[in-house]
Amino acid sequence: MSTASERFRAQLTIAKLISFAYDHDDGLVTSLTKSAGNFSLSFDQNGDVSISGSAGNASFSLTPAQKDKIGWEVRWISVRFSATEGDLFSYSISGKIGALNLSFSGIIDFDTLITECTGLLCQAARVINADSRFEANAKGAFRNN
């Protein structure tokens, strides 16, 4: 079990990782979030990110600046996304952040996540210094069960 604050921080981390993945391969991420299938996203303490699904796979490493944007000691995070309806996906997060084990699920609206961040998720990643705006928009995309 995690507190609402920890859940939000984990959700924000996922939003940032999706943003970095979008910057790395926007075609793949768009295909995955528009598919009717499942996909997964994982991240480890070395900054290695993997995103995979029926539309393809991508792996990349975060830059030191991107790792700093995560903002807390993530040992590992794994997220499984399953299409529900429209742009909605159910998600299940498990992970270890510092000494804290996280495990929870919810619903994410990828359309909101992408469009509410000034039109393109990759732009949000580039202007992440405006963290409060990114956090507010990301928070609107996640729905708890």
Short note summarizing the structure:
The chain is built from six helices and seven strands. It has 145 residues and is of the alpha+beta class.
How would you characterize this protein structure?
With 145 residues, the chain is α+β, with helices and mostly antiparallel strands. The protein has one domain. The protein contains 6 helices and 7 strands; from the N terminus they run H-H-E-E-E-H-E-E-E-H-H-H-E. The chain has helices at 4-24, 26-34, 64-70, 110-115, 121-126, 131-141, and strands at 38-44, 48-53, 56-61, 74-85, 88-97, 100-109, 142-144. It has a 7-stranded antiparallel sheet with strand order 3-2-1-4-5-6-7. A hairpin with a 2-residue loop joins strand 4 and strand 5 (88-97). The chain is globular, with a radius of gyration of 14 Å. The model is unreliable at 118-122 (pLDDT under 50).
